[in-house]
Design a protein that fits this description.
The complex is a heterodimer. Chain A is an alpha/beta fold. Chain A is about 55% helix and about 10% strand. Chain A contains 32 helices and 15 strands. In chain A, helix 31 runs antiparallel to helix 32. The longest helix of chain A has about 35 residues. Chain B is mostly helical. Chain B is about 70% helix and about 0% strand. Chain B has a single domain, classed as Orthogonal Bundle (MetI-like fold). In chain B, helix 2 crosses helix 12 and helix 11 packs antiparallel against helix 12. Classes of the chains: A alpha/beta, B mainly alpha.
């Protein structure tokens, strides 16, 4: 058995070494057009077929690169734009282009897009990619939404034509049972959402970013605190009282979708993102235009257009544009859209922008696809300026406190809260556009710095040598031969550490001194200590309290998991060998299954109203516990969930260590008549603890920089003050959020340097104390 | 095997109590997994909101193999993790021997250095990491991922393993050397066999680190779907603006954890035993 396993391992290892060597992409020649495309295999297949056809006709080689998802496209383009195998054509979402254009990564296509092209695509395909009067891309698929309705509950003719009708029809179709519980909803909305409710917000007079007369967005003109918005809030509150709005503050779109899929909702504003589920459930539904505005204009859905852009640094622009033109031909668009919708399955992933495809048999023979494409003229592209995404960071929590009250159940003043929201967005816009003055550093400064560094290190070493020579009698004799061997053996690891750890640290320090940001991705320059000054002058609200919480969190997680792990390890050593084996396999599960999935599962399990944990507790008569929605309990839940993740690691380590503890220790203690618990606390735990001090410190650091908490709680429950840290925000997640929300990457780098220094000092002190403890 | 004699009633009561506690812990540990498995077999799952699926099928698993590059992903991950594991065990054994057995100048400084550099979260310096990979020409190459994973896990695990090596008495080395063994022979023949439990932990943990690594892989592997490791592939199923494919994701997680469970199970014999039948080294 043992031999077989060994053989298998050797074979596997041989196989793996063997199989990684041939993975070598042949050097890309300059004339190849690289296309970063889709995550869907059938869509990529269609593109590859088109590329082959193109190569046959023109002799220009094309490489189609499948991508893991479209959301990384902008980031990856920045990284790869100037490499040898740089992408020439990139498939991305229109809202991502702002920062890329500001930083100079996209080629303007204004001259390339002629009348022939504009006449064959929906207007929104170009609008979405227009920026400062130029067009930077061509839309291919229009990700929009409309009025989804259940045909069994409401007929097409009865669909509302105005928003007022939408509300009244919705109310009329809502049915409650005898106990007053709603069993069917006419309409169902999510009050915390702004994306799908945007047409309604507009109906009432609210808006996100105002536009100049030439169509450009004005990020300082924010219409979220005007009278119309207050009226909107009043209306939604009224609907909420009538149960037409989700009454649980944790639930969101997926809850509405799931009720709609189960035939309990007559109308909702949504797209086709769950069309496959509707199909599986045999739901008889349709998608129609949104109700009109009161002034009889069409309501426009907020839309993300996905399309093709061209890398500014392409080294074969002519060929690239030639292929782009080829992709945009009607028959090729047809092939791509069919591939994107999984051909015969027609899953609705792609909604064509091309008129000929819309008119084609393929689309028109499917009711849903046909009516969705009919909505293309009723779209408003999501603002593609770099400031476009700012509202994501605030509206959910703001609407939550407006509609559900503050964390201590106080009503909030609507007008004041909305003004606070607008103020927060506006100050973020200002931050994003703030450019610190660059400083010119003559190149000789670098030479001075380097010389100074070398002199400093040399001086330090000389002084140190003196000190060591003096003290040598106290220390163990150090052998020069062993020193040589030791350093020689450590060279490989040291080189790796310098390459992968020291270099990023130094590079980050450098970045923190520049104005590197979402609109300065390429041409950033040194601005001195302005970022640090910002951080220390502006400060962050509650920095001290958040640092305390982060330390408490990290310490609790490490200590509890260490003790629990060690207890388990020793208990399992005492129970029956075979039973222990089964226990061990179960207990290590949290360690071996990808954390993201289990974190999200915990999030669902700990939900207050429908969470499985509360349901189980309900069976034995315990009332609902607000696991993640009460600030204090959320802190405890967070610690417990993280302990759940890390105790298996300590259990396994401790199991190993127990083996190393000499048996005599225990026997001596037993002879003295000590109880098992006593032995554990006086012998086992301290011995394992001593051996693990560096590991515990390391785990503390890992927990200090723990990003998992953010997946679990998003830092929430949110503070009632906009932008202030939530109850479970850790130092690192909070500061990075504030910096990344406004794409100020240099500020993020400065934060990381500050946190690094802080934690390093903390760890050094802990090491010193730990060493004292273990020497005692 | 039975070392504790269950003679008295009290002992038996304690045993029962222990098992009750263990079982309740088992329940807490298993709830999320039971849920993941239910979701993996569930049809029409829309969100993680805890509505337990009503219909079950193997569809999600079938879709994994037909619609995604799951097989490539898991193959890549196993390749990366296995080699990372071997490299890490090598690095850690050598480094830990240096720290635990050699007396040399700058020992404490070197140790602190290894600890301190790791405080800086790599996850946040992706721009720098990407530059390194460009300079080394290791973009879109599994070798690159293997090297950085081996570095990350070795650096972290040296700290762990040193504590264990320090508990192996130095007298054993001296005895061996008196018998004429070289330092290398002492390491390979005496110390490493004694350190098996810790090496097993190092092996598993380095495998886990490489298997779960996401941030670096998603940044440097940009060309093609079939070159991705599993963690990145998994993420692509849930990171979506609207549609999230929970069932598919859960199915992938269930299948994806099998290699780790197998590895743990096959390594288990190296670190169990302990108190009552463990090797006594004094």
């Amino acid at each position: 058995m043992k031999k077989a396993l060994l053989c298998l391992l050797v074979i596997l290892f041989g196989f793996t070494v063997f199989s990684i060597t041939p993975i070598k992409v042949e050097a890309a020649s300059d004339s190849v057009v690289h296309v970063w495309f889709s995550q869907y295999s059938q869509e990529n297949d269609a593109m590859i077929a088109i590329a082959n056809q193109f190569t046959n006709e023109t002799g220009i080689a094309v490489e189609v690169v499948p991508r893991i998802n479209v959301f990384n496209a902008a980031n990856d383009l920045v990284n790869n734009a100037e490499l040898d195998d740089r992408p020439d054509i990139v498939f991305m979402q229109a809202p991502d282009i702002g920062g890329l254009i500001a930083s100079g990564y996209l080629e303007s296509l204004t001259a390339f897009i002629d009348e022939d092209i504009t006449s064959r695509f929906s207007e929104v395909a170009f609008d979405a990619f227009s920026y400062n009067g130029n067009i930077y891309g061509v839309g291919y698929s229009i990700d929009t939404y409309g009025l989804l309705y259940n045909k069994d509950l409401i007929s097409e003719d009865d669909l509302p034509t105005t928003w007022e009708e939408y509300f009244t029809t919705g109310e009329a179709l809502t049915i409650s049972n005898d106990e007053g519980e709603v069993i069917q909803w006419g309409i169902l909305m999510n009050s915390r959402d702004m994306w799908f409710n945007y047409p309604i917000i507009k109906e009432f007079g609210g808006y996100y970013y105002g536009q100049f007369s030439n169509g450009d967005y004005n990020p300082y003109d924010i219409g979220l605190d005007n009278e119309g918005m207050v009226n909107y809030v009043t209306k939604v509150k009224e609907l909420k009282a009538k149960n037409l709005v989700l009454t649980n503050k944790i639930q969101g779109e997926s809850e509405i979708v799931s009720r709609f899929a189960n035939g309990k909702v007559a109308m909702m504003i949504y797209g086709l993102w769950y069309a496959s589920v509707f199909k599986q459930k045999n739901l008889n539904y349709g998608i129609a235009s949104l109700p009109d505005q009161t002034d009889n204009t069409t309501s426009l859905a907020l839309t993300t257009v996905q399309g093709f852009v061209v890398n500014k640094f392409t080294d074969n622009l002519a060929e690239t544009l030639q292929f782009l033109e080829y992709i945009l031909r009607d028959d090729n668009q047809q092939l791509l859209i069919e591939g994107g919708n999984n051909n015969a399955e027609k899953i609705g992933t792609r909604n064509p922008a091309n008129y000929a495809v819309i008119a084609s048999e393929y689309i028109q023979s499917d009711d849903i696809l046909a009516s969705l494409s009919g909505l293309n003229s009723e779209c408003e592209p999501f603002p593609n300026i770099p400031e476009g995404t700012i509202w994501y960071n605030y509206t959910t929590t703001v609407f939550q406190s407006i509609f559900f009250g503050t964390s201590d159940d106080q009503e909030v003043d609507v007008q004041a809260k909305l003004s606070e929201l607008v103020e927060a967005i506006r100050s973020d816009v200002a931050l994003m556009n703030y450019q610190a003055e660059r400083i010119d550093i003559p190149s000789w400064i670098w030479a001075v710095v380097i010389v100074a560094l070398i002199v400093g290190i040399a001086a330090y070493l000389i002084i140190k040598k003196f000190v060591i020579k003096k003290k040598k009698t106290h220390y163990e004799r150090i052998s020069w031969k062993e020193t040589f061997i030791a350093w020689l053996l450590m060279v490989p690891l040291l080189i790796l550490l310098i390459v992968f750890y020291v270099y990023p640290i130094i590079h980050n320090i450098y970045l923190s001194l520049t104005d590197y940001s979402g609109i300065n991705l390429r041409d950033y320059g040194l601005i001195g200590f302005a970022n640090y000054k910002d951080i220390f002058v502006a400060g962050i609200d509650g920095l001290a309290s958040m640092t305390v919480w982060t330390v408490v969190f990290a310490a609790c997680v490490v200590i509890i998991s260490f003790v629990l792990g060690t207890v388990l390890a020793s208990v399992l050593n005492k129970v029956n060998f075979h039973v222990a084996k089964i226990y061990r396999i179960i207990f290590i599960l949290p360690w071996v299954i990808p954390t993201v999935i289990t974190l999200l599962m915990w999030q669902g399990l700990l939900e207050t109203d429908n969470g499985l944990i509360n349901q189980i507790l309900g069976l034995i008569g315990i009332p609902n516990i607000p696991w993640l929605s009460d600030p204090f309990i959320a802190k405890i839940s967070t610690i417990m969930v993280m302990v759940w993740f890390s105790f298996p690691y300590f259990m396994v380590i401790a199991t190993g260590h127990l083996k190393a503890i000499p048996k005599d220790y225990f026997e001596a203690a037993k002879v003295d008549g000590a109880s098992a618990i006593h032995i554990f606390f006086t012998i086992t735990l301290p011995l394992v603890f001593r051996a693990l001090i560096p590991t515990l410190i390391m785990s503390f650091i890992m927990q200090f920089n723990q990003f998992g908490v953010y997946i679990l709680t998003q830092g929430g429950p949110a503070s009632d003050v906009i932008g202030a840290p939530g109850a479970t925000d850790l130092l690192i997640t909070y500061v990075f959020n504030t910096a990344f929300n406004t794409n100020r990457y240099a500020v993020a780098a400065a934060y990381s340097v500050i946190i690094f220094v802080f934690v390093a000092l903390f760890s050094l002190i802990a090491m010193r104390i730990g060493r004292k403890v273990s020497e005692d | 095997m039975k070392t504790i004699r269950k003679s008295s009633r009290k002992d038996r009561a304690i045993q029962v109590l222990i098992h009750c506690l263990l079982l309740s812990l088992v329940v807490i540990t298993l709830i999320p997994f039971a849920y993941i498995i239910l979701m993996a077999f569930g049809k029409d799952v829309v969100g993680t909101a805890t509505t337990i699926p009503t219909e079950y099928s193997f569809d999600n698993f079938a879709r994994l193999f037909t619609e995604t590059n799951f097989v490539d992903w898991i193959k890549n991950s196993i390749i990366i993790s296995l080699i990372t594991m071997v490299l890490s065990v090598l690095f850690v054994s050598v480094s830990v021997y240096v720290f635990s057995r050699l007396r040399f100048l700058g020992k404490r400084k070197l140790f602190n250095f290894i600890l301190l550099v790791q405080i800086f979260p790599l996850m946040l310096s992706m721009v720098s990491i990407f530059r390194i990979f460009v300079m080394l020409g290791l973009l879109n190459d599994l070798k690159g991922l293997i090297i950085i994973n081996a570095t990350v896990s070795s650096a972290g695990l040296v700290l762990l393993a040193k504590g264990y090596f320090d508990t192996i008495p130095y007298e054993l080395d001296e005895a061996a050397m008196v018998d004429g063994a070289t330092k290398f022979q002492t390491l390979v023949k005496i110390i490493l066999p004694l350190a098996k439990p810790m090496l097993a932990v190092v092996a598993i943990q380095s495998f886990v680190i490489a298997y779960n690594e996401y941030a670096i892989a998603s940044t440097i592997m940009t060309q093609g779907l079939d070159g991705m490791p599993l963690a990145v592939g998994l993420q692509s199923m849930i990171v979506g603006q609207y549609g999230t494919n929970w069932s598919l994701y859960c199915a992938a997680s269930v299948l994806g954890s099998i290699p780790m469970i197998v590895l743990f199970y096959s390594m288990q014999k190296y670190f169990i035993g302990g108190l009552t039948e463990g090797s006594v080294k004094m």
